[in-house]
Amino acid sequence: MEQFFDRFKIDCSPKAHDSHTIVKGGIRITVITPCLVRVEEQSKGKFCDEPTQSVWFRDFCKPEFKVNESSDTIEIKTTKANFLYSKKLKKMIRIKLRDGRVVTNYKSGNLKGTCRTLDITAGVITLGDGVISRNGVAILDDSDTLILTNDGRILPRKHKEKDEYYFAYGNDYIGATTDLYKLTGHVPLIPRYALSNWWSRYKAYSQNEYLELLERFKTEEIPITVATVDMDWHWVDIKGKFGKDSHKVYPHQNLWEYVYDVWSAGWTGYSFNTDLFPDPAGFLKTLKENNYKTTFNLHPSQGVRWYEDQYEEMCKVMGQDPKTNAPVKFDITDKKFIENYFKVLHHPYEKMGVDFWWIDWQQGTKSPVPGLDPLWALNHYHFYDNAKDNNRPLILSRFAGAGSQRYPLGFSGDTTQTWASLDFQPSFTATASNIGYPWWSHDIGGHCMGKKDDELYIRWVQLGVFSPIMRLHSTNNEFMGKEPWNYSGPIERIAKEQLRLRHKLLPYIYTMNYRTHTECRAICEPMYYAYPERKSAYECKNQFFFGTELIVAPITEHTSSDNNMAGVNVWIPEGRYTDVFTGRIYCGKRFVKMYRDIENFPVLAKEGAIIPMSANDRDNDCSNPAELELLVYRGNNTFTLYEDDGETLSYQNGAYLKTPFTVNENGSTVSFTIGKAEGDATVSPEKRAYKIFFKDIVNGEITLKVNSRKKTASFKKENGTLVVLLDNISATDKVEITLENCEHLTNKPKKQDLIETIAKYQMGNDKKGLLFTDFLMKEKPLPPMAENFSGPVEEILALYRG
Questions:
Q1: DSSP state of 376
Q2: Structural domains in the chain?
Q3: Which of 76, 133, 291, 343 is deepest in the core (most CB within 10 A)?
Q4: 701 in the Ramachandran plot: left (φ > 0), alpha (ψ -120 to 50) or beta?
């Protein structure tokens, strides 16, 4: 047993050095960084130096600080803030920040974090606090967490009282969240396959139905890399199969337990439903042969019952008489149960082909250990168990509090299929970075209820493409499947294009995955992370950074029948931004309401953006591509592509490759360089082809050098912009492309753009002429009219303002 539990031992440094602490009776204050202070209050003077469920690392480099003590107060002065604590009141009474702000209310202005689940919600809900605040100070309260022991157990604190962390970072939100990760644990590097498209549905598929469905996706050339099988992989109708008393589990402690047992009698299961899956091993083998990774759904709360295939073995190892037919009780606090829960119930299926588990815990927060939420324990144990055999671990589960970033991925639950649900998800996803939770996976398209709305579906798919995880999902209602071919012709086509785009984006998203792992930066971040001093950055909640190169502003409202467009108010920071779909170029430092038809939504590339993409968008191969496409926007920037094998832990031993791309603009000259890669070249193809799209350059005089030798450049025009083609480039080659006397792409002529836009308005032709002819032909002011007609015009006019 002890050898088995070695896998759950954590790498941590929970004890701060004594020189970082001030102890006065039942009070201990630890200075962790110049902006981060821990305050413990213990009437018995027994302080916590063990790792807790949230906090694993307290031994940071020693910050410089001075302590001034009076009869009542302890004042700590660091290079960034002054902390004043009252011994009499037992509270932090004041924090003065370096910018002069004095903060006494540590709850006001909090920019929030995330929540456990969005189950059966429709729109905005209350979120827990994050560690950043507009007033400059936020608290992480660790008082109620349990401690982790060296042998893998989770136990209550011996002396539980106050344990709080004061984040006094002012407007340095990135500094605050970075130190939150250092305090609670880094984000693992997730497998590459998880970043493409997932298929998921709560539906009782048969083995053949599921394989035929995936074959249909393949025929339609829609890349799917993760096959999710919901609870019907095991027996669910247990009363029909095993008798009316088969659902009884334990003596019910309350009415809720009784209701739950009756309502969800078959949710827990470990035996394949052989009526649906007559050849489980063959099913999983076929998935593996076709390059799918597989996850199965779990609801483990009801233990192991007498009809399960593993019942006798579980009874034997747990010392229980199988003749009694009594369930083997689920107890995630019992070491013996934990070991056999994995060895008997899960490892055989993993050997058969299950790659990771979807832990769908919805059964409350109680366990035999007071204060231990079974969800947290399941996340912790499953993630560490999945790391065996050099496997890069993964789970899909709900958020269980600060520190949950250590156990990706997050499953946000059964959202309702409504516009209100869609409208909340962009800000919900980005705001989660405030509590260090970067990898939310939503039910794209909505899970249940609502009504059929093709436009809602495609807007959700568009959001999903630029979300951390892209997982289509729905309930078992026969009419709610999220397959693109279940929607009208134009919507089907757009959905396919968007799902292919997600797969193409793998090189970019995987590099952002590495950035999250090493730099503690979420792929989706609020605008105020980069612009904390700008009021506008707080007024565009549904807009977010998608990695280092893009800003995304999803459309979350229905199109107007007046113009067949929908609008979203977009804040554009300083600089030049280009919409990757429409090609429109915007100047920054302003709000612009952008209008798009159902085909598009605002995705803005920054000045100098470099976006690596795979040329493959038709099958589910997610290996490092032999043909790489680069979208390059003029400006000055460097982007370093990160690659490894995508699945194992070998990157920890140096098996990775970094390839730098650099763009520079100097007047009418633009240069682009592919630098020599650093690292293990064996993780990428020996030779690579590049297709470099200079997205805002129409023409130029091209000079190409490979390893300082001039080469004849191969190029072409595509959609009005310049494309340079390279072949047989190795990781050790240096490529230099110089474009001189460049002709830059510009916005369409104003009049042309206006005519094309107004022509789409759904209104009488004569009325249209009366309203717009003088405006277009004589440049008279736009007459008063409804916003649905004036708004798209105003957006075009904004393109030509300084």
A1: H
A2: 2-101+136-184 (no CATH), 192-487 (3.20.20.80), 623-744 (2.60.40.1180)
A3: 133
A4: beta
C-alpha to C-alpha distance for 681 and 645, rounded to whole angstroms: 11
Helix (H), strand (E), coil (C) string for 282-320: HHHHHHHHCCCEEEEEECHHHCECCCCCCHHHHHHHHCC
Per-residue pLDDT tens for 680-732?
999 999 999 999 999 999 999 999 999 999 999 999 999 999 999 999 999 99
The whole-angstrom separation of Cα 211 and Cα 284 is: 10
CA distance 448 to 492: 20
Q: What is the pLDDT of residues 322-366, one digit of tens each?
A: 999 999 999 999 999 999 999 999 999 999 999 999 999 988 899
Backbone angles phi, psi at 529, to 5 degrees: -65, -45
Give residue for tokens 């409208």. Answer: 423
Q: Work out the angle at residue 91's Cα, subtended by the Cα atoms of residues 87 and 92, and round it to the nearest 5 degrees.
A: 105
Helical H runs in 633-719?
none
Q: How far apart are CA 760 and CA 772, in angstroms?
A: 13
User: Helix or strand or coil: residue 421?
Assistant: helix
Do residues 82 and 76 lie in contact, with contact meaning Cβ atoms separated by under 8 Å?
A: yes
Give the other-Cβ count within 10 Å of 711's Cβ. Answer: 14
- CA-nearest of 475, 491, 338 to 417 is 475
The token duo for 409 is 């991925």
Other C-beta atoms within 10 Å of 306: how many? 16
DSSP 203: S
Long-range CB contacts (< 8 A, 24+ apart) of 564-567? Answer: 564/597, 564/598, 564/760, 564/762, 565/595, 565/596, 565/597, 565/760, 565/788, 565/792, 566/595, 566/596, 567/593, 567/594, 567/595, 567/596, 567/791, 567/792
User: What is the DSSP code (8-state) at residue 789?
Assistant: H
Q: Is the pTM of this model over 0.90?
A: yes
Query: What percent of the residues of the chain are helix, what percent strand, and what percent coil, each to the nearest 5?
Result: 30, 25, 45
Supply the DSSP string of 555-612, one letter for each residue. Answer: --SPPPTTTS-EEEEEEE-SSEEEETTT--EEESSEEEEEEE-TT---EEEETT-EEE
